Amino acid sequence: MLEHLDGAEGPVGLGRLAETIAAEENDVTVAMIGSAARKRVYVALYQCHLPKMADMGVVDYDRRGGRVELTDEAEQVLEMARREPDVDRPWHKYYGGVGAGATVLFVANYLALLPIHLAANAVSAFVVASLVVLSTAHGVLSRRRSDGA
Length: 149
Fold this sequence. Notes:
Layout: H1 2-7, E1 12-13, H2 14-26, H3 35-56, E2 59-62, E3 67-70, H4 74-82, H5 91-110, H6 120-147
Antiparallel strand pairs: 1-3, 2-3
């Protein structure tokens, strides 16, 4: 929506905006959009997205006239949207590292190669805690990335 409004010269009608977005979402031309797809996008824009964006100061939204236009503040949002996504983290390497480290710790403890002998439960608790922290970080960072934060 922001890209379409950014490319427009002046206000855009809500109906036209809904058609364009529905076409993009369905990977078809505007002429091929069905009324259900058009209506779904129109209602979402009218009731939810545009009022929220107007409250944030990103768009000027004339609800009665059905016209939408970007504000000067929209440039910051557009800059964020244009950024290249972060490179994926090599999570498999992190999990592999925890697994390899746990294996070395278990073997070294079993063979009494450590300066102190650790109880098996302590080693297990450390490994499990490491995996919980790693998987939590993985989930949080993945969610932030998918939410655009």
